[in-house]
């Protein structure tokens, strides 16, 4: 079975349609798999603010997401989070590390998200998610993920200082061209797996997303990863950063591509007794 948790509170959103993108994805999953999502947070307008402002504003949403994720991860169901931004994972990755200390986090993202308040050039909270979960700075929402448990997949837009932090911490990186199903299986070995995806990991034009950069992965690569990970080892999935087009037809096409990519794992989970 699938537990569906949907973030609807602003968590450092800098684009107008991220919350709607999460809602559209969730509604499509509800319809396809007969689910009833647990919607968390109240929408608020996007803003181009610094992490020091966005983080306290998001506290209520992050606490609620953490509680929902904790309850789900302790069940036998597949935990699925549909997040408006990657920043929501500040609440979830520490829970994964606590409940499954041996888990590997596949952080599938066009960026490293390994900056800290001391290294960020943009002040964007979403660029400091993985480093926060690994304890390089204190988000106020926990840490505990060992850097060697994290695998950056498809990451290519990484700042110079951020790259040095990644190297020093021992986070593994699989570039887009090398992100095959076999490479991912070699990285996770026999460990439980948590998958985080920011849609900017894809080649621009595949899915509407902010912060896209060229030379990305393709939907077929993402689907192949979901096909390869044994269903019994997949703890949970986070899907984030669909900047939903205002045009309903285009938004529906984007969601259909997403559902096709994740279908191998979701179909298996839905079929569990």
From TrEMBL:
**Gene3D superfamilies from the UniProt entry:** Ureohydrolase domain
State the UniProt keywords alphabetically. Hydrolase, Manganese, Metal-binding
Q: Kindly indicate whether the keyword Metal-binding belongs to this entry.
A: yes
Pfam families hit by this protein: Arginase (PF00491)
Q: Where does the source fall among the domains of life?
A: Bacteria
Quote the CDD domains the UniProt record gives: Arginase-like_1
The answer to whether the entry has keyword Iron-sulfur is no
Q: Which family does it belong to?
A: Belongs to the arginase family.
Q: Which PANTHER family does this chain map to? A: ARGINASE
Q: What is this protein called?
A: Arginase
What organism, scientifically named, is this protein from? Answer: Streptomyces polychromogenes
